[in-house]
Amino acid sequence: MATLARLSGYRFFRFDNEVDKRPIVQAVKEGEESCYARLVLEPLMILDAGGLKREELRWLADTVREHKRTLIRGLHVQG
């Protein structure tokens, strides 16, 4: 698991064994591993989520949109 960024209490990372070839990141709320989301960066969409409120998912989508270049660059460096 390679951490790509830590933003406002969330850790963004990718799984080394991700089989989907799309640019996908995982976001986990620090200290609450059961609060997570799995997001495709292009086009931006939430694939899976658990333990997060709708407002938190909206915030995550906005944050990913804002930091998309950095996250994609991290995926290419780690990949």
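(ticket continues) Second input and output from the same batch:
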Amino acid sequence: MSFLSWYLAILVGGLTSGWFCLESTLLTLAISATAVSFYHNRTTQNARRMFLASILYLPVIMSGLMFHRLCDNWHSSLD
């Protein structure tokens, strides 16, 4: 659940749009569901599903962060 507060802080900080917060929350809930599924039923199939979800999680989150990034003007202030 700490990831959800991190995504909310990114939204409030003005780095991304509200869509990122929604999408990252859904993705976090999905990976949490795979973890709970694996915890309750430790099969090879659930282990593979959890492994794949953990590999895909960070690149998908970072891609969403870049896609939903709000424009910043800090480059122009350096000149």
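Agent notes: Helices lie at 2-12, 18-40, 44-67, 74-78. The chain has a mean pLDDT of 80. Closing as not reproducible unless the customer responds.
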